[in-house]
Amino acid sequence: MTRQLVARLLHAIAVCAVVATSVFVLLQFAPGDPFATALDGADVPPSVRAEGRARYGFDLPPGERFARWTGALVRGELGYSASRHRAVADVVGDALPRTLLLVGVALVLGFAAGVGIALVQTRHHRRWQDRLFGVLTLGGVAMPEFLVALLAMTWLGARWRLFPVAGIGSLGDAAAWPVWERIVDLLWHLALPAGALALAVASRVARHQRAALLGVMREDYIRTARAKGLGEWNVIVRHALPNAIGPVIALLGLALPSLVGGAVLIERIFGWPGMGLTLFDALLARDYPLILAAVLLATLLAVVARTVTEAVAEFVVPRRAREP
Amino acid sequence: MIPHLSRQLALVLCIAAVTACRGTDASPTGGILVVSAGADAETLFPPLVAGSQGRVVTELLYDKLADVGPALNTFGDVGFVPKLARSWEWSRDSLTVTFHLDPRARWHDGQPVTARDVQYAFRVWTDSAVGAVQRAALATVDSVSVPDPRTARVHFRERTPEQFYAFTYTLIPLPAHLLASLPDTALRDAPQMRSPVGSGPFRFVSWTPRTRLELSANAAYFAGRPRVDGVVFLFAAQGATVAARLLAGEADFVEQLSPPDFAQLPQDGAVRAQPYGGFDYTFLLFNQYDARDAGRPHSIFVDRALRRALTAAIDRTTIVRSVFDSLARPAIGPFSRTQWTADTTLTGIAFDPSTATRMLDSLGWRDANHDGVRERDGRPLAFSVLVPASSRPRQAAAVLLQAQFKAVGVAMTIEQTDFNAFLDRARRGAFDAMVSGVRTSPSPRGVQDWWGTPGPDRGAQNWGRWSNAEFDAQLDSALAASRVEDARAHIRAAYQAAVNDAPAIWLYEPLFFAGMHRRLTVGALRPDAWWSGVADWSIDPAQRLPRDRRAPATP
Lengths: 324, 555
Description:
The structure holds 2 protein chains of 2 kinds.
Chain A: H1 2-29, H2 46-55, H3 62-74, E1 80-81, E2 86-87, H4 88-123, H5 128-142, H6 145-159, H7 179-216, H8 220-227, H9 232-244, H10 246-269, H11 275-285, H12 288-316, H13 318-322
Antiparallel strand pairs in A: 1-2
Helix pairs in contact in A: 1-12, 4-5, 4-7, 4-10, 4-12, 5-7, 6-7, 6-10, 7-9, 7-10, 8-9, 10-11, 10-12, 11-12
Chain B: H1 3-6, H2 9-20, E1 32-37, H3 52-61, E2 66-67, E3 81-82, E4 85-90, E5 96-101, H4 115-126, E6 141-148, E7 151-156, H5 163-170, H6 176-179, E8 202-208, E9 212-217, E10 230-235, H7 239-247, E11 253-254, H8 259-264, E12 271-276, E13 280-286, H9 304-312, H10 316-324, E14 328-330, H11 353-362, E15 375-376, E16 379-380, E17 382-388, H12 392-407, E18 411-417, H13 419-428, E19 433-439, H14 445-451, H15 469-480, H16 484-501, E20 504-510, E21 512-517, E22 520-521, E23 538-539
Parallel strand pairs in B: 1-10, 1-11, 17-18, 17-19
Antiparallel strand pairs in B: 2-3, 4-5, 5-7, 6-7, 8-9, 9-10, 11-21, 12-21, 13-19, 13-20, 14-20, 15-16, 22-23
């Protein structure tokens, strides 16, 4: 177990190092400048942009910049965001929890809904319920997240006013509100962005889970369970699901990076100031330290998620758990 | 030279006094003004503010000494409105302006605004260690002296018609009693920059970057408490979200509605659009030099007659109609109609495809091989146009340009790139042509930056490196003229020279429409600063919303 953990840790470090180096190198080839858009006014002389580059070390050779950046990283420093006039650690410290909350809620919602839909489809295999959810989940997989988000914002937000159009909280001094009111307000604001993200997750999970369930429904132990007189729901939930959920949990680990990627658009549309929006703004502004930090964290998140989901899958699947 | 303008100051001051001091009908109405905005402020430290949202917030937090008036005049001091300075006077040689500060003016912490704050601000703005964005605008100012705490004397190095505008429009007095103890190099990261203490009609409450910024009414504001209780800015990067907040009733005001937003406006009149002049114009810029070899003239666009022929081939009215419907006008020249120097009587190059065809034929560009593209000496009449991917109107305009050029045998390809890369290539001159846009200022000096022959004192943004001696000379004369009438005449001649020489095809000027909730009452919106009158905006007490109860707390 310890050997496995150490191996995975080393693997994670290697992946992060490769990704960080690749992104740094790619950024050198990207046209643009950290002070191009922020200081593009006609009355801003080129000397001011040059001063900015010198102040933050962007005028140094790429090799020296990379050495300085990695040196600082080892010391636990992520650098300074010139576009936000703040330390990168502070920017990330604000944004990361919001993305984790958004993605986490979307993942839980999507997983629960997807598994639930798959159970219904399996129970009513080849009947109208199965076909209806089949069409809906196919639509959910096919429809781009940004389209879902824009439709939700326009209809559920702007037209019917059921949910806030954007933002992370209502006006006012939230710190003075009771805890329950703060939680309700947060969930109310989370509904549309998390719902838009969860729709795609639920659709994918449902399609994979349905296929996995139908696969195990032909197994002998399912026939035995039915022979014991158990009801069909009981058979599916208690006997089929535990044996069919492993691959879906592993799928979640793989889905997390794409979910974080999808969060870029969702956060932009719903004004959710998380890592996705931070990365998007940083890319437009060519804020190199912030881009590197955001990519590094996303990589770390993906590696950790994969490790955790693999461990959970091993723990959940009964046959694997029983293996020596 | 300048002092004769001050003879009109008494009249101006009377008008300004009426404007500045709110009457009995301007009592507070309460309510929270919620503004939906597309971009956040990058900083709240005035010298470092480069973007428009930063300007909005800092100018609500801080007062200037004086501000341009509704006429947007930038010559002399005619029409300028007193703010922190109650009055001012010129020396006989026009090299010194003495500002008398309003003794009632206070910083938000209760300390009086003094001449030392003006002197300190000038030092900060001109210290290269601070890196003030608009430091160059103060290049003609030599120093600021303090004869007494209520008097700031500004000494200029030279007389220019816009010296007063350059100083008052750029410099915002800073609270020396709070900041002077800090080294200048530490100012940009000082905690005070994230919770500023200003002198304006609104006080800082809180700021969650990229999310929300809250201000509350300054009850002790010397010119009268703002009518609303506070202003909250809600930020969203997506244009559709910015407008959706207004349509959903979550916001009261949006700075600019886009053409698609108009189709979404509710029929019940809950949201209305109010026009105000913008300072934007867009054009197809021809690069005078080769995109790959900056030292070699461009093989196509160096020819003035060809540029004129290309201009005659473009039906700008159709482009404007197709892209904006009625929400823009064809541009006339290198200016916006909102500028006081605008001239709508210039003789332009009319759309006439038959003339364009004849001109191209006469220049030797003919379609000899009948492939639909003209050639000369075996080289096709083809070029690429750079377009920023962030601007849908410019992309749409580029597609229409492509079709219209094709009709006269010119092959145009479109290159889209993100805005940062767009600016990078523009500054390196790595393009054939580009659909570019300018947001000008009230001052005609911006014309020199965009269209003057590139050099140390002009042409910094002249990415096409167009050069015209007559244009430069007329503009120099205009910017040195002591009389507004003379300046107008020279500027007209400069504009006409630019239009005749066709360094670009002047495409369109978008019309600006602010979107606002019907409960909001605003006066005229100043084209360069819609926020300048926010302290006088009011919210109908009969149309309060639940969100008004959650007022930003006054610290």
